[in-house]
Amino acid sequence: MLIASAAAVPAAAAEPAARGGGPAAPPGRSAVWSASLQGAHGTSPDLTVRNIARASVAASSLRVRIGNPYGDRPAVFRSATVGLQRAVGEADLVPGSLRTLTFQGRPRVTVPPGGHVYSDPVPLRVAARQNLAISLYAPGAPVNDHTFPPPSPNPPASFLSLGGDHTRDTGDAAYPEEDRGLSAEPGYHPGQLWWVEVVDGRTPAKGTIVALGDSNTTGHNAVGGGDRWTDLLARRINALPPGRQLAVANAGISGNTVSRQPNPYDPTGQCCGPPALDRLEHDALGLAGVRHLILLEGTNDLGGGDHAPPAPASQVIDAMREIADRARARGVRVIGATLMPMCNAADSTREANRLAVNEFVRTGGVFDGVVDFDAAVRDPADPTRIRDAYRADCYHPNAAGHAAMAEAIDLGLFGLGRRGDRAA
Questions:
Q1: CB–CB of 293/333 below 8 Å?
Q2: How far apart are the first and last CA of the chain?
Q3: How far apart are CA 393 and CA 395, in angstroms?
Q4: Rg (CA), the chain
Q5: pTM exceeds 0.90 for this model
Q6: Across-strand partners of 65?
Q7: Which helix (H) or strand (E) holds 52?
Q8: Number of H helices and number of E strands within the chain?
Q9: Is the peptide bond before 153 cis (omega within 30 degrees of 0)?
Q10: Which residues contact 233 (CB under 8 A, 6 or more apart)?
Q11: pLDDT per 10-residue tile (average), the chain, 424 residues
């Protein structure tokens, strides 16, 4: 397992020692946002990264989890702050919102390889669907990142600064806003995050729904303007009274597999995160307040690639069954999601395997509920393909497809009411 508790590493003087575990879920807190790190890519230059995250529900007394799960050496965070982003696509902050993050009372922390650390709670209130800016300064640290080319300026995203520590800057002078894509140059980086994994807080919400998935959960290729299905689900839930709400945390990694196997796209193990079976605790069950898990994984296993052959249905089903069993043992309800069309030929082995997995999800009796994404987006005239209005490519729905996915989720699965309980 690549994400695991790490043995303590001697910390610098006046620094708390970060561990692989830590107080993950104290009473009364819920994860209001997450993004799963997928690998380590290079070393941080002498600059600050301002990560942008969106709270799914209103919360206060915020904590931030930062991680070094794939690093080959300790990551030293010299300073860290959190504030409220003033506007989408801009690096400056709402006046008066900047807070210094501390770790056991100290502003500097060392995170060992394979470890993570939670900040102390800070007195900051964030509204539902409001963006947070988490600024980290760790020159020379291994860059543990989350990346996917997103369809819009909505988070997740980051700004890389000009040289130096700009964690306490409330303006944007040190943060160029030119779109730099997935690089390490100063500027705006849609879809790219460094080190930040989770934000939790005190909230009137009744807990957290975690979406465990692959690129169809990260929102890769959701072109056409709009949010991912997880963000749209959060929007529907936000329309309910605060005491009936649940937070939504996105634990998607593009290219991820659900079963233990070589990754089809990357032999280095740094592309697409460990299999869902091996990241389940770190990315889902270990989050504060988790009550429900939506599982949408298996497309990459069944599709295969240059570095792994297509998996049989039984391999995916066995992995799904193990995840459901482990989650329920922790008191978490598991919602199975059917796999969407992949442009497989109707008489192909891949399509037969996809249909077998979907039959298991719908009728296997393993899950506490089912979301039928396949039925929501498939083309009635050709069920091996996503319908044209919803398709970005053979594997991925566009923004309209993500909207259809969000609308296909019955809020009653989470004890929140029936389909009529939704945003206008």
A1: yes
A2: 43
A3: 6
A4: 20
A5: yes
A6: 118, 198
A7: strand 47-54
A8: 8, 22
A9: no
A10: 209, 248, 406, 409
A11: 28 43 63 97 97 97 98 98 96 98 98 98 98 98 88 84 98 93 88 96 96 96 90 96 94 97 93 97 97 98 97 98 98 98 98 98 98 98 98 96 98 78 37
Q: Which of 252, 247, 214 is nearest to 233 (CA)?
A: 247
CA distance 94 to 97: 6
Residue 136 to residue 322: CA distance in whole angstroms: 36
Q: What residues form DSSP beta bridges with 43?
A: 142
Task: Measure the CA–CA gap between 307 and 350, rounded to whole angstroms.
Answer: 17
d(CA 86, CA 133): 9
Q: How far is CA 265 from CA 70, 157, 326, in A?
A: 18, 24, 27
- Using DSSP bridges, classify how beta strands 192-194 and 290-296 pair: parallel, antiparallel or unpaired: unpaired
**Residue type at 372?**
D
Task: Tell me which DSSP letter residue 307 carries.
Answer: T
Return the half-sphere exposure (C-beta side, CA atoms, 13 A cut-off) of residue 7: 1
User: Alpha carbon of 339 to those of 36, 53, 241, 314: distances in Å?
Assistant: 21, 27, 32, 15
Question: Within a 13 Å sphere around the CA of 91, how many CA atoms are in the beta-carbon half?
Answer: 28
Q: Rounded to whole angstroms, how far apart are CA atoms 384 and 395? A: 11
What is residue 136's three-state secondary structure? strand
Alpha-carbon separation of residue 389 from 375, 394, 396, 409 (angstroms)? 14, 13, 12, 19
- Tokens 């070094």 belong to residue: 68
Sign of CA dihedral 264, 384, 226, 36: negative
What is the residue-wise DSSP string for 67-106? EETT-SS-EEE-EEEEEEBSSTT---B-TT--EE--BTTB
3-state SS, residue 37? coil
Kindly give the pairing relationship between strand 369-371 and strand 333-337. parallel
- Joined together, the tokens standing for residue 25 give 């879920």
